[in-house]
Amino acid sequence: MKTILNNIAICVSEKLKSAEGGHDWFHISRVLNNASIIAESIPASNKDIITLAALLHDIGDAKFHNGNEDIGPTMAEKIMFEKGVPENILKEVILIIQNISFRDSYTSSEYHSIEFDIVQDADRLDAIGAIGIARAFNYGGFKNRKMYDPEILPVEYKDKESYQRSTAPTINHFYEKLFQLKDAMKTSKGREMAEERHQFMMDYLHRFFKESGIEPFNNQL
Q: What pTM did the predictor assign?
């Protein structure tokens, strides 16, 4: 299995060579590292499933494919089949990829596994803290969005469609998603790792608004 995992890692790094900076191979490697740390605290978890799901979870992110949510799972399945991943493991990895995105939190799903919890926490950890801040502004620039606009207030999205249609400034993203992730962690280790990263984001926005000479949205900080 080690050879299969190495071959898939090489394949993913090649496919993501020109990806947007927040969803490139370095994002994958950080998620792999986070998942490994969390998995160490949960000995019963299947490390092969965790590694494959971490490697392939962003192989075809819907937001870079006109919202098509089938591309990622289809690409992942093709890669795993060609590299010889056993069918029982392949199926579990696909289920994780189909449910891992934050946008999927707006819909109900009956799927659950400890491996899913680990990889989702690992992915969400990379969306917060210093790395999360860098990724948020990188993506905002990639989409040519405003950095901040005091006239555009953060909103609470009611469904996946409204979340996906959002073109809000990057600072709003902290309120609309990033600040929610700490309490959404599913593993004890994930929650522990999220605490410091969450506080760093809070401190950053304090500084951002102070240097801007304006009050935070609704004085929430």
A: 0.91
Rounded-to-integer distance, Cα 221 and Cα 212, Å: 14
Q: Per residue in 112-127, pLDDT tens?
A: 899 999 999 999 999 9
CB 178 within 8 A of CB 201: yes
In terms of C-beta density within 10 A (0-12 exposed, 13-18 middle, 19 or more buried), how is residue 159 classed? exposed
Percent of the chain with pLDDT over 70: 94
d(CA 84, CA 79): 9
- Tally of domains in the chain: 1
Q: Residue 203: which domain range?
A: 2-219
- The C-alpha atoms of residue 26 and residue 42 are separated, in whole angstroms, by 25
pLDDT at 162: 74
CATH of the domain at 124: 1.10.3210.50
Q: Looking up tokens 């992730």, which residue turns up?
A: 181
Q: b vs e for 54-91, b when ≥16 Cβ sit within 10 Å of the residue's Cβ?
A: bbbbbbbbebeeeeebebbbebbbebbeebebeeebbe
